[in-house]
Amino acid sequence: xxxxxxxxxxxxxxxxxxxxxxxxxxxxxxxxxxxxxxxxxxxxxxxxxxxxxxxxxxxxxxxxxxxxxxxxxxxxxxxxxxxxxxxxxxxxxxxxxxxxxxxxxxxxxxxxxxxxxxxxxxxxxxxxxxxxxxxxxxxxxxxxxxxxxxxxxxxxxxxxxxxxxxxxxxxxxxxxxxxxxxxxxxxxxxxxxx
Length: 194
Prior knowledge:
Layout lengths: L2 H33 L4 H6 L7 E3 L17 E9 L4 E7 L7 E6 L4 E6 L7 E7 L1 H10 L10 E4 L4 E9 L6 H8 L3 E5 L5
Parallel strand pairs: 6-7
Antiparallel strand pairs: 1-2, 2-8, 3-6, 3-9, 4-5, 4-8
């Protein structure tokens, strides 16, 4: 075998190896979503049901972490399922302590986020709706000027997650941070949709 034949055989072997590696890589990437244990909504469903605020356990060394864990943040979660009811998130907040809220789809993608600065007179009142529920509210609602102000969010998906976070940079601040996140109520609110 002459040097040209050896070179062509080696080049063919490298080309075939790269093709096989590329195919395996593409198949692995496409298979990952089907092989993942569960999405965040399903994993959090083991801790709570939709329409109820639940304090997430504090991350501990060696323990399995719940989704969205952070050892310096006290976190509560509220799941929602808009197929039956809307979700009301309301409560009183501290004016001088940071509180962060993120509204996420079932798989954890953020569709809206805000901080305690969105509160009106230290009161937070948020209604999470599907597009049909929002339409029903807008067509049936009158102009009641004395009604409490509320922020209406239209979720891009029927199921989702609300995370309420309070930073706790020092271990001694953890109980106060937990108390701040649990001041918010999370409850299902019936809206008749025709």
